[in-house]
Fold these 3 entries.
Entry 1:
Amino acid sequence: MKIKKLAVFCGSKSGNNPLYLAEATKLGKLMAANEIGLVYGGGGKGLMGAVADAVILGGGNIIGVIPKILLEWEAQHTGVNDLRVVNDMHERKKLLYELCDAALILPGGNGTLDELFEMLTWNTLKIHSKKIVLLNCDGYYNHLIAHINTMLEEGFLYADWQERLIVCADADEAIAFLV
């Protein structure tokens, strides 16, 4: 099945490594070139903004989903023409998951990890069977991957996590897996 809409979860900050921003931009360009629409949190800053900017420059489609509280911070991307405003973070995540065919996780903070683990949990519970890709840009998620392996080894996971989460080194590999 061709992925038509990809949820991208990532930081609203750019991080300290310039490679994160470069990969976010490359991802957006590849999405537009492969006619994969972006479904994301609607932000205009950090890696989120970089992916959206690249999709827009490539003529791609975008759906942004942002909670009212972030509108008050003026954090929304002003170039997104399909920006859906929801009441809270829970409603945002639910709509993002419903709108996408697959999810990709770039480097990010607490919110990004929250989205990753909720997608994984829902996949384990068979609430959805969507592909989930972790873009381990420059080894950003190495410690997390090691911890997930520990959870498996210590008997806290119901199945091998690699059946549900695909780890890719860069945007090229991730898009190649998804198309």
Entry 2:
Amino acid sequence: MRHKLLLLILFFTIQSISFAQVNIGFQGGINSSKLNGDAEPNTAYKSKVGAIFSAFVDIPVSKSIAISIQPSYSQEGTKISHIKKDSYYPVDSLKVKLNYFSIPVLVKVSSNNKKFYAIGGIESALLLNNELTYNDGSSEPLDISVNSWNFSIQFGTGYKFAIGNTILFVEARYAQGLDNITEDPIVNDLIPRVKSSSYKLLTGIEIPLTSRKNKL
């Protein structure tokens, strides 16, 4: 169902390209992600920082609203900490790395001055690879089944500033997974039923394909 919704949005977006002021660009930043849900006894999930890179195309549907399609590569995952019996504080012991290729389809709503904007929508992400890393630096593939697809909602806000005909921007975004990425029972499982979440801090460049009538 979610695949059909994304395809429908893409279809109507592509239909509007011929008569819209299209902007393209690139962005990158950091992605602070973690898993949430079931955990083994005396175990906690903590945030893991990775990188995120994407290109995007923005297609306006009105003066203040645009559809943004953003093919992305994202490094996600979590740290797993264990609380020892003789210590109150959790000790980081493992890192779970989950690398995705995703296509967020988002709506951008700009303020009257075209500088501030809000953004939100849905993301469909394909798992490229996974890895379990130990404190000694050694690593191996996860010995559990992780869903190939992860669907999430995203929302955030950003600020644009112009340098000539080029627009630079900074953006903060939050993403929340909609489905469990694993469905295994909690007993003797490293990451049982869990969902993903992440905070993203991005910066990038936006380039209009034609001359911009309303500069910032």
Entry 3:
Amino acid sequence: MKTAAPKANQIQQNWYLVDATDMVLGRLATQVASILRGKNKPYFSPHLDTGDFIVVINAEKIRLTGNKELSKTYQRYSGYPGGRTEIPYKKMLEEKPEEIILHAVKGMLPKNILGRLIIQKLKVYAGSEHPHGGQKPQILSLTN
């Protein structure tokens, strides 16, 4: 018995529009990561990029549950001694709300070349305007 792998001409990639207003960050990120990988399609293959493109708007209106708004921090390290930087969630939400969703979704993708290819199909915008009107994205309502 052979396993059927999709050919390049059989893979159809659609564009979807997701409004992040009042959505919980983790729940939004898991559903977006699943669609980016293509797990919602019958011909999903873990070694191929079978997923769709996703445009997320209103990233500044995302919310967290519990006490995470006060305690969550984002860290990065420059590689030099004393080069660790911690940014609180509130400051990140004010300055770069797109990075919050990108960081959450990127953590749920494979840590290899395929994951780096898949994350490029995610477009996140702070406001309700986006430049992808030419692709005619379909509105996707995710459960909260």
